[in-house]
Specification:
Porin; 35% strand
Length: 365
Amino acid sequence: MAAYSVSKRMKELGIRVALGARRVQLMRAAVGRPVALLAAGSALGMVCGMLAARLMSQLVYEANPSDPLVLLGVVATMALLGCPDPGVLTVDCPTRLSFKHLICRSRVVRLRRGPVILKAMRFQTSLAVPIAVAALSLCVDARSFSQAAPSQSSSQSPSTVQNPTSQPSPSYISIDPLANVRYDNRFDVSLGMAYDHLKAGPNLLQGSNLGGLDLSASYWLTRRLALEGSGRGYLGTSGAAPNSFSINGPFIAQYLFAGGVEWLGPHNKHGALVAHVLGGGAYGQFEKDLRGHSPSVVGFYNNQIAPAVIMGGHFDLNRSPQWVFRITPDAVLTDYGINYGPNTKQIDINAAISVGVEYRFKKKR
């Protein structure tokens, strides 16, 4: 770049020589701007390199981006590549001037705009490249020698010490977040998003898809046996029997409260299978959105409290000794009835599932 810049300023430099510019002034005019740009770029690069030192130390193992020897080597290399040799730019003073020709030491050049000639040689970048590579090699070799010196001294120490102790090499330490999973907690609580497929009437062909919450808690008597209580609420709409009142998709709800036993099955630090059988009651709200009509119009059950049984279990995936990702599939048995027409009761088996988290308290048995 410096050679190209000088080649474009040949006429200007010739005028400077004609006006009596000395060698130092000519060198300053030729390479002053490239040197200034090189210095500014090198300073900015060093600042950016120092700011990125933390990132580099994390990406490269045992790297020291702020090593002054390396930084100085890079600056020296850029200087060698960007600047010409001081002896490259030469000016031969004329030995005899005339109005027609200017005779120089090397050749005779016809005058064009004045009795002055400037002879500038091309910058020898081919010489600067090997010098730059050598400078970088010296920096790397010096750095390697400084790092290898302690190892050589340690390798020579066994000749003088009878019982040498070798320095342990750095190693990565793996941390297992599930190492402390013991299944020895006394209490646990779980909360999840719940789904229930409910049949809202004894003869309805269309079921209802309800959503809600599932809150459960357990008290462990032994390592495998526990008492569990569960409260669940489901809300949604249901299909209805054809009617003359244009009641379509009325709102219904079901609330379950049950308790029973829980058994810890196969388990390890990654997860566990838990089975439970719970018994209790269910409150079905089927008449809220019927506009005052009898549930017989749409074929629904009456609002009532009925016996309920929950059979199923948990699939637990441990995320830590306390936190667990839990999936709970269940079969829900309810015994709802109707009080219109022939009073009948019917046991329905509905599918339910909940997905949530469990927390195990630290208090141990």
